[in-house]
Amino acid sequence: MFIDSHSHTKHFSGDARMNISDLISGALSASLKAVVITEHYDDDYPHKIDTPMTCDIESYYESFQQWLTQSPPSLELRFGIEMGYQSGLVNRYNNIVQNYPFDSVIMSSHLIYGIDPYLFRDCYDLGPKELYSKYISDLVEIASGNCNFDILGHYDYISRYAPYKDCKMYYDICPDEFDTLFRAMINSEKSLEINTRSISKLRSQGHDNPMPDDRILLRYKELGGTIISLGSDAHSPDGLGQYFNETRKFLKQLGFDILTSYKNRKPQMTVL
Fold first, then answer.
1. Of the options 3.40.50.1450, 3.20.20.140, 3.30.420.40, 3.30.70.1660, the CATH number for the domain spanning 3-271
2. What is the pTM of this model?
3. Helix (H, G, I), strand (E, B), or coil: what is residue 83?
4. pLDDT by residue for the chain (272 residues), tens digit each?
5. CB 214 within 8 A of CB 194
6. Are 139 and 107 spatial neighbours (Cβ–Cβ below 8 Å)?
7. Do the strands 151-152 and 104-108 form a parallel or antiparallel pair, or are they unpaired?
8. In this structure, are residues 80 and 104 in contact, taking their beta carbons and an 8 Å threshold?
9. C-alpha span between 80 and 105 (Å, rounded)
10. Cβ contacts of 212 within 8 Å, gap of 6 or more
11. Is the dihedral of CA 241, 1, 3, 72 positive or negative?
């Protein structure tokens, strides 16, 4: 049974489409052992949009205590958060993390050159080499800095909205940047997230091989990386645990044998 380390509800993530009852039902349908709810917290989001990009964490925490009473014994809910990185927010984020009993903290980058590529796609005119290299370099800053987090979220976020014929992220596009990122992550003992929402996106585009580029994972392993977390990034119940079985087989074929989730900010190992 899997643990889904990345999910959102519409109670506190403005772009999500499921309430807590939907999440519980979806998780049970997917036979998940546990779900980490990781509501969005993108402070100082640069764009004026109707969707809130932060949440009232005190209200979220109070609601989470109630949600625990709604979940059956067969499903464990964990209290998490996904923070949208910007360099000037590190101290603010660290204070939040220190003041709430999170089980798991994801640090993600939703911006490149100060804009969200989900909303504004002009950045893709730069081409995959320059754009993907820049994005991975931004992740290096997260992994090598003073952020207090557990999981580095969706390393391939920038590729999701790319208009290229083949938008998939490959190791060979920016090998030096990937190597620097992996060394920083290994040194700081951070987990690499396999975000299966990216698999879903590639599959919807009819990609011949929607799984992550195996060279990315093999290089991570070659450099000594062992900590991997699975997250669906589900915003609706049908996304929970999506493609987890396929990803498990994929990782085993590459020689990985452990998945890592977090509880009380401590790693919990599950054998593949």
1. 3.20.20.140
2. 0.98
3. strand
4. 899 999 999 999 999 999 999 999 999 999 999 999 999 999 999 999 999 999 999 999 999 999 999 999 999 999 999 999 999 999 999 999 999 999 999 999 999 999 999 999 999 999 999 999 999 999 999 999 999 999 999 999 999 999 999 999 999 999 999 999 999 999 999 999 999 999 999 999 999 999 999 999 999 999 999 999 999 999 999 999 999 999 999 999 999 999 999 999 999 999 99
5. no
6. no
7. parallel
8. yes
9. 6
10. 156, 169, 194, 198, 199, 250
11. positive
Pairing verdict, β 258-263 and 266-271: antiparallel
Token pair of 262 as six digits: 């977090």
State the amino acid at position 64 in one-letter form: F
Q: Where do the domains of the chain lie? A: 3-271
Tokens of 144: 């090598």
